[in-house]
């Protein structure tokens, strides 16, 4: 889970890492006047993705009028398709030099890794690609809770060959390296990064901050999350989309695969997915694309990931279908229940509940194609047959195969074919 820069800086400050003076966070232009700004200041867009500087998301303001004008522009900005909803202010500092310090996990060995470079203030990935020799790494093989002094001294010595430090600056830089690693260990982080560590005329300071928490360790970090005002698990890339927020509220995993601003194209079929477990959810995404490429000239696009495994209750199943039917992009829904833990009976009751509610409330109904096999299949079959007789109009867009006679690939193919036919009929 990623933290915003201003949240990461609060964590760094608690752990003894020097940061610029923080003036506060705003969500509208009018709020700027409530801050006690001492100019010049830096106005920064608060987003959970990189590339803010290149996208114009970081600006210097020399007056209140300029700060308000910049805030107005930033709040209208989109960075990599994500809207800026928050701007924060901090003091502007004079730069004499910059470097990079980060701690992460080596994906091959799972050992902790200290990464340092004298090339700070630019994307470290670009430095690694263009000048790999500029990146220095130290692997911490024993998962030590603190860095050895010998490593810190070696880092400072090597960086000092390219950046001139005063004795005081060396001392501060040493403490930053030490405390970034301590922070990483204390908060169950996957990444703690400062880019750049800025060398000013007087000191050394973290003018940027990036923290990614390990989701598996969040249960140990309740005090930290409370101190930051974080009350729910945050999306990996940015704030949850409206669909993702609904799914969080109803207690099941869901991810939108397309940007929020996506508009429907005439020659594209947008397929919503309510598969079984997470593994089959990933497989379904690939299968829809593969079948689309092999059998259809039109573009076939899966629009979401969802995990409906683990035995969700009936109301939760209903909400899975409501989310996709409320989503304007959805043309058809492909679903399946390969019941091991999860009950086919509860699944079909949840789907039918959603369709009946939407029919009764005159809400948009999307065609559903799928199959169910496994646990509680006899009772599910009986309920399905009875429901079709009781409310045929509400269920006329539901096409569920019972048993193994038809493979899922054929059902997906059938659903896509009918979805394209409906789309052509509507546009004709």
Largest sheet: 6 strands, antiparallel
Number of DSSP helical runs:
12
Radius of gyration: 27 Å
Described by the principal axes of the CA atoms, the overall outline is elongated
CATH architecture type of the largest domain: 3-Layer(aba) Sandwich
The CATH superfamily label of the largest domain reads Succinyl-CoA synthetase domains
Binned, the helix content reads: 25-40%
CATH fold description of the largest domain: Rossmann fold
Structure, described:
The protein folds into three domains: 71 residues, 2-Layer Sandwich (Dna Ligase, domain 1), CATH 3.30.1490; 131 residues, ATP-grasp fold, B domain (D-amino Acid Aminotransferase, Chain A, domain 1, 2-Layer Sandwich); 186 residues, Rossmann fold, CATH 3.40.50. Helix content is 37%, strand content 23%. The chain is built from twelve helices and 19 strands. Strand 18, helix 11 and strand 19 form a beta-alpha-beta unit. Helix 7 runs antiparallel to helix 9 and helix 8 crosses helix 12. 36% of the residues are buried.
How are the SSEs placed, and which strands pair?
Elements: H1 5-14, E1 22-26, E2 41-45, E3 58-61, H2 64-74, E4 78-79, E5 82-83, E6 87-91, E7 97-105, E8 112-117, H3 124-130, E9 135-140, H4 149-160, H5 167-186, E10 189-199, E11 204-206, E12 210-213, H6 222-227, H7 242-250, E13 254-256, E14 268-274, H8 278-295, E15 299-302, E16 304-306, H9 314-326, E17 332-339, H10 344-360, E18 368-374, H11 377-390, E19 398-402, H12 408-427
Parallel strand pairs: 14-15, 14-17, 17-18, 18-19
Antiparallel strand pairs: 1-6, 2-3, 2-6, 4-5, 7-8, 7-10, 8-9, 10-11, 10-12, 13-16
């Amino acid at each position: 889970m990623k933290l915003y820069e201003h949240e990461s800086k609060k964590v760094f400050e608690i752990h003894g890492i020097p940061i610029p003076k923080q003036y506060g966070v705003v969500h509208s232009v009018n709020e700027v006047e409530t801050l006690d700004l001492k100019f010049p200041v830096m106005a920064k867009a608060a987003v959970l993705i990189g590339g803010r500087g290149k996208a114009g998301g970081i600006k210097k303001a020399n007056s209140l009028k300029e700060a308000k004008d910049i805030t107005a522009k930033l709040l209208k900005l989109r960075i990599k398709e994500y809207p800026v909803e928050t701007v924060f202010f901090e003091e502007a500092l004079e730069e004499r030099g910059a470097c990079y310090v980060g701690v992460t996990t080596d994906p091959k060995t799972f050992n902790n890794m200290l990464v340092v470079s004298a090339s700070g203030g630019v994307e470290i990935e670009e430095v690694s690609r263009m000048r790999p020799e500029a990146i220095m790494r130290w692997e911490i093989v024993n998962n030590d809770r603190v860095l050895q002094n010998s490593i810190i001294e070696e880092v400072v010595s090597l960086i000092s060959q390219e950046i001139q430090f005063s004795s005081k600056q060396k001392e501060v830089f040493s403490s930053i390296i030490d405390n970034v690693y301590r922070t990483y260990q204390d908060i169950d982080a996957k990444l703690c990064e400062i880019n750049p560590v800025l060398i000013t005329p007087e000191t050394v300071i973290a003018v940027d901050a990036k923290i990614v928490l390990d989701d598996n360790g969040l249960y140990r970090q309740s005090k930290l999350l409370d101190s930051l005002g974080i009350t729910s698990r945050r999306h990996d890339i940015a704030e949850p989309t409206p669909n993702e927020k609904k799914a969080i509220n109803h207690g099941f995993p869901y991810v939108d695969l397309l940007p929020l601003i996506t508009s429907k194209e005439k020659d594209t079929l947008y397929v919503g997915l309510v598969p079984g477990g997470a593994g089959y959810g990933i497989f379904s995404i690939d299968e829809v694309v593969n079948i689309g490429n092999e059998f259809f000239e039109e573009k076939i696009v899966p629009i979401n990931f969802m995990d409906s495994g683990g035995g969700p209750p009936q109301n939760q199943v209903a909400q899975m279908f409501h989310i996709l039917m409320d989503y304007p992009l959805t043309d058809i829904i492909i679903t399946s229940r390969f019941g091991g833990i999860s009950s086919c009976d509860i699944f079909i009751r949840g789907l039918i509940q959603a369709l009946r509610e939407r029919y009764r409330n005159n809400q948009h109904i999307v065609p559903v194609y799928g199959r169910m096999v496994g646990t509680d299949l006899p009772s599910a079959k009986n309920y399905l047959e009875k429901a079709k007789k009781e409310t045929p109009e509400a269920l006329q867009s539901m096409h569920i195969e019972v048993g193994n006679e038809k493979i899922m690939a054929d059902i997906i193919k059938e659903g896509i074919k009918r979805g394209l036919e409906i789309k052509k009929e509507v546009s004709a």
